[in-house]
Design brief:
about 110 residues, 2 strands, two-stranded antiparallel ribbon, mainly alpha, about 80% helix
Length: about 110
C-alpha cells in the first residue's frame, strides 16, 4: 500500500513539472481555474476519500469491531463524526478558494 505522503509528493511534483513545461495551457486551451490551490484540492479530494474509505472498511472488519468494543463510550461518536467533519471542512475550504479565485479574476 502506498503512503499518502508519497502520493501527495508525486502529485505536487507533477503539478510543478506541468507548470514549468506548459504554463496553464492544456492542448492549447487556457485553464482559467487551474491554479495550484484548485489542482491541489483535486489531489486532496482523492487522498481524503481514500483515507475515509480505508477507515470505514477497517472499522467494519472483524478486527475493527473488536477494537470498537474496547473503546470508551464517549469516543465512538467522535470517531463516527470524523469522516463527516473532514468532508465538511474540505467542501467549505474548496468553496472559499473558488470565491477567492473569482475575486482575483475580477
Amino acid at each position: 500500500m502506498l503512503d499518502a505522503g508519497l502520493i501527495l509528493y508525486v502529485g505536487l511534483l507533477a503539478l510543478f513539472l506541468w507548470r514549468c513545461l506548459s504554463g496553464w495551457r492544456l492542448c492549447g486551451a487556457w485553464l482559467e481555474y487551474a491554479n495550484y490551490c484548485m489542482l491541489l484540492y483535486a489531489l486532496l479530494l482523492v487522498l481524503n476519500l481514500w483515507a475515509i474509505i480505508s477507515f470505514l472498511t477497517l472499522a467494519m472488519r472483524q478486527e475493527g469491531k473488536q477494537v470498537w468494543d474496547e473503546l470508551p463510550g464517549w469516543f465512538r461518536p467522535l470517531m463516527l463524526g470524523a469522516p463527516v467533519a473532514a468532508i465538511v471542512t474540505y467542501v467549505l475550504a474548496f468553496i472559499q478558494t473558488g470565491q477567492h479565485v473569482n475575486e482575483i479574476r475580477r
